[in-house]
Write a structure and sequence with these properties.
Elements lengths: L8 E4 L3 H12 L4 E4 L7 H5 L3 E2 L3 H7 L2 E4 L4 H9 L2 H4 L3 E4 L5 H10 L3 E8 L11 E6 L1 H11 L4 E4 L6 H29 L4 H16 L1 H11 L10 H17 L10 H13 L7 H5 L6
Parallel strand pairs: 1-2, 1-4, 2-3, 4-5, 5-6, 7-8
Antiparallel strand pairs: 6-7
The structure holds NADP nicotinamide-adenine-dinucleotide phosphate.
């Protein structure tokens, strides 16, 4: 049963993530109204206590606080544009994956108190200690609704710029996909030799977890723009060894395309006279954009 002393919340979007958010709100007792393009997805949530709005307008007018969790930026704009007037004066918390530019565009598009969010969890992690969510934009919207937002997981406010939550989100996703790319390549190598990837997986996790600690040193070097601090694995050595990643893939007849882009960047740093420094200096090449 909803706790009517708690503020009403509306959730737009009942995909895997939107449904998990609704379940967290219901478990915490928030009166929750839901809308989804495909109405059938509301049925199990209504059985668990949610109220189903069949139109976006009804969903928006049911609550001052609107949580939006749709596929992408264009979907959010298309859905919210249909209720532009009804949105006026409400709080919109957009948890849809977006870029920083898209988030800033939405923040200025409607007459709302706008908070953007980046969910750092998969649906089964929502409302567990493993989940955290970045927020940025309206500080008052964040402060006023913090208790509601913390039903999803730890909330981390990263600034008044509505684009900063998306920037943090995409940065962490970049780290994750880089790890997935390397992990997939590693598993492909092992699999190509007929070795059990299941038996290999714990070794991969162990090594990647211990090497994750390396980012603290890289971050210090980047902030100080000094890539010669505490170097234990110079980039000339790393660049020479990296060539073997491609050669090893060729020997196993697998594609090295997931890992190949880093090799030329390391080689350029070495050629530019930075061989004694750490790999963090590669960021100086990234900062040039696509200019050589
Ligand atoms: N799942 C995750 O692991 C995860 C993790 C972090 C962040 N996120 C983010 O959360 C957001 C939602 O993800 P999800 O996992 O819930 O995705 P999903 O299961 O694919 O659900 C997509 C949602 O968007 C709606 N939608 C798609 N196109 C639409 C359109 N043209 N008009 C109206 N509604 C439309 C879908 O409605 P229908 O049901 O009618 O198709 C559904 O509600 C995404 O931005 C995603 O990046 C997801």
């Amino acid at each position: 049963m909803p706790d009517l002393s708690k503020p009403a919340v509306t959730v737009l979007g009942l995909g895997d993530m939107g449904s998990a958010l609704v379940r967290a709100l219901l478990a915490a007792g928030y009166p929750t109204t839901v809308w989804n393009r495909t109405p059938a997805k509301a049925k199990p949530l209504v059985d668990e206590g949610a109220t189903h709005a069949t139109t976006v307008a009804d969903a928006v007018t049911a609550s001052r606080l609107l949580i939006v969790c749709l596929l992408d930026h264009n979907t959010v704009a298309d859905v919210l544009d249909t209720v532009r007037d009804a949105l006026s004066g409400r709080v919109v918390v957009n948890l849809t994956n977006s870029t920083q530019g898209q988030a800033r565009e939405l923040a200025g598009r409607y007459d709302v108190d706008y908070l953007d969010g980046g969910i750092m969890a998969v649906p089964p992690m929502i409302a567990t200690p493993a989940a955290f969510v970045f927020y940025s934009g309206s500080r008052s919207a964040y402060d006023t609704n913090k208790a509601v937002l913390e039903t999803f997981g730890e909330s981390i406010y990263v600034g008044t710029d509505p684009g900063f939550a998306a920037l943090h989100d995409i940065a962490l996703l970049s780290g994750m996909y880089g790890m997935f790319a390397g992990g997939l390549h590693a598993l492909a190598l092992i699999n190509s030799a007929g070795i059990s990837t299941t038996e290999f997986a714990p070794l991969l996790k162990r090594y990647v977890t211990s090497m994750a600690g390396y980012v603290d040193g890289l971050a210090e070097q980047i902030d100080k723009q000094d890539y010669a601090i505490n170097v234990t694995s110079n980039i000339a050595m790393q660049s020479a060894g990296y060539i073997n990643l491609t050669l090893s893939a060729q020997e196993q007849a697998i594609s090295a395309e997931l890992l190949e882009p880093l090799g030329p960047l390391m080689a350029r740093r070495v050629a530019d006279g930075h061989g004694h420094e750490d790999i963090g200096g590669v960021i100086e090449l990234l900062k040039k954009g696509n200019k050589k």
